[in-house]
Known about the structure:
Mean pLDDT: 84
CATH class: Alpha Beta
Helix content: 10-25%
Low-confidence stretches: 1-17
Number of helices: 5
Oligomer: single chain
Number of strands: 16
Amino acid sequence: MSALRHLPPPVPPTSARVVPFKRVTEEEYFALDTAAETRLELLDGEVFAMAGASPSHNDITLNVSAFLHGRLRGGACRVRSGDQRVYVPARSGYVYPDVVVGCGTLHYRPATNPPALLNPVVVVEVLSDSTSTHDFTRKFRAYQSIPGLRHYLLLDSRQVSALLYSREVGSLGWNVTTYDQLTDVLPLPALGVELPLAEVYASVVFGEGEELRG
């Protein structure tokens, strides 16, 4: 693993899609998201449709959720994945991380359905297709506006590769480290656990299903 001092360039897209939809008000977004067959996210008044993901993307998400749930079960932190909406104040937006962890008393933005979490401690995004640029730039800038967020983890769905952004309580600056070996272990001190990359990528088959694309 090696330390980085700046945001890395976006990873080329591989397996899922972020589709810009249109600019709307917050109330219009709620109506659209309720009626949509896929998840919709709102940032700066613009709606993005989150299209389907690859098998490796789904396996990684499940692996991380299961590992963290097993380590945190019975404690003060709770793990959710996929359908937990999160509010990002600086962008007046709502997003759906692949995995999110909240600790202590969880707070939600009033009058939102589904409820939008206000105080996540850890957010995990699995990179795939055009979500790479979206997650590295627009969503990361949005996540930085959440005061209590301590870790932002980006996991590649095409290869063993992880970027972990971390900050101390009350700090505005982020430290970032990249990991690319299955023997690497990612420290998550805000949760009191460590996440082995071997657990993240357990049973993941890179490129699975690609031969079926027409």
